[in-house]
């Protein structure tokens, strides 16, 4: 277990520590409520996590943990696996931060209650639970016509409690920037531009009901995304409209839990997702004029169950998950070339984990997993240990193996710009980590710190590869190795709270050929996050954040990387006499992100394909009752 990067309560800390002998961070969005943070922003407060995002703020974003790809991270929401076969990875933008109660990030050893271990990486999101009569209303405003409003209401209903949460928001995303026209060697054709076709609209409704045993959960998500072109040479005032994507996802789940000496439970869910991509035949966007519209419909049924059984002085946990998913594809390219229109996939995950004392001061936790996709299965295993070294000191070690089968999306493409690779092989990963943590309290000052070394070795690594300027595919590039060190620390003093996370990581492509020894893309060598909160009074507090990312390779060649980036956020939170709360501040105070560049191994710097907004002011007003 490692330290959370925002303030957490003792119960959440203790619950996470009991769940795993490995490394876990617990984040609570309420600690930064009103600051306009997305789920991706929150995750980057943890060591070992790097969020890869494109298409503007709030656009498509996936998490990389300890140098993983986005597809290697298993994402659970309220105990249900959200990784779909019809997608390459879980888009974090589809999980509104406003409905989240807490986030658990497991790195290395993954508890047996998660049937899909990723490749040593799991994000478990817990949405807000009903607690009786409650209500909250919030309004957030930002630069570039960005706004969001959210409403939450709960009360008693029958023998239980219910909660309804709704979120509505949008952005134009039309921030200004300097465009070098794609000719970085010629400054005479440069021009000042505003980002075009970068808007978004989001609508989300969540309903939950639960009593002492049963729970119901329903969610509806509707997103509209304008997909910006690569910036160099584009974003002129007379540019034609660009591509757009509409996504609708609805799910309904039911479950039941039984506690006692032997605890067990189950849950079932049906999910439907519809995506429609449209491009107005701009030849600069699509080289194939007929591929202007594509539609994807995903239906998935899932059933999972768990049981925890005492065994002597230890316990056993058995978890099973089953998924049946179908993907239907329609579109111009599918019709013209008579491509396949339906894909089906059956997934079964089974995990058995034990937890047993290790002498009088520790425990050891062995686990085995069976992960099967369409009748082809793989057995994996892991072992975690932890023990107390002395007053306040604790050590942990884990070692394990995992497999990941390629998704439908990776194997068969999207019928448009993502090319098929039906013969992709499963990834075979090996990971281990070792670390220490320390906790101490002196008077009113409390400190928690953790230091961990980790190693990942993945064979038949599946990576996203650009085939040309407009199309891409997934391929087994060979072997990738990642080594790194994580540090997390949290200090709690009278009126002050400080949280620090730092990750050093070295990635290496060990595939034969010209890329041997090159760094893997989107695995930054250095990443740091610092957050300081100071309570000036009972009603007024200030916060400051600093974030640094450096040594981040941009593509598979390893000869191009993004420039090192340091950003700072500042703001305050004021509780008014009427109980409402005002939060205001600035993101990227020194406008550093707008100056980011692509830096080649040799030659001049270039502007990024997808520039960032840079300095952004925000304001929010919240009421709760």
Structure description:
By secondary structure, this protein is mainly beta. Helix content is 4%, strand content 57%. The chain contains 4 helices and 34 strands. The strands form 5 sheets. It has a 22-stranded antiparallel beta barrel. A hairpin with a 3-residue loop joins strand 13 and strand 14. The longest helix has 10 residues.
Number-wise, the strands total 34
DSSP strand content:
over 45%
**Whole-angstrom Rg:** 24 Å
Report how far the terminal alpha carbons are from each other.
35 Å
Overall residue-averaged pLDDT value: 90
Q: Which range best describes the helical content: under 10%, 10-25%, 25-40%, 40-55%, 55-70% or over 70%?
A: under 10%
Largest sheet properties: 22 strands, antiparallel, barrel
The assigned structural class equals mainly beta
**Residue windows where pLDDT falls under 50 for at least 5 positions:** 1-15
Q: What's the total helix number?
A: 4
> What general form does the structure show?
globular
Explain briefly what this protein structure is.
With 625 residues, the protein is mainly β. 4% of the residues lie in helices and 57% in strands.
Describe the secondary-structure layout.
Blueprint: H1 10-19, E1 23-27, H2 39-43, E2 49-53, E3 61-65, E4 74-77, E5 80-81, E6 100-107, E7 121-127, E8 134-142, E9 146-157, E10 160-171, E11 176-179, E12 191-194, E13 200-210, E14 214-226, E15 244-258, E16 263-278, E17 293-311, E18 314-331, H3 332-336, E19 342-358, E20 362-373, E21 376-390, E22 393-404, H4 408-412, E23 427-442, E24 445-466, E25 472-493, E26 496-509, E27 526-535, E28 540-550, E29 552-553, E30 560-562, E31 565-575, E32 581-587, E33 598-600, E34 616-624
Parallel strand pairs: 4-7
Antiparallel strand pairs: 1-6, 2-3, 4-5, 6-7, 8-9, 8-34, 9-10, 10-13, 11-12, 13-14, 14-15, 15-16, 16-17, 17-18, 18-19, 19-20, 20-21, 21-22, 22-23, 23-24, 24-25, 25-26, 26-27, 27-28, 28-31, 29-30, 30-33, 31-32, 32-34
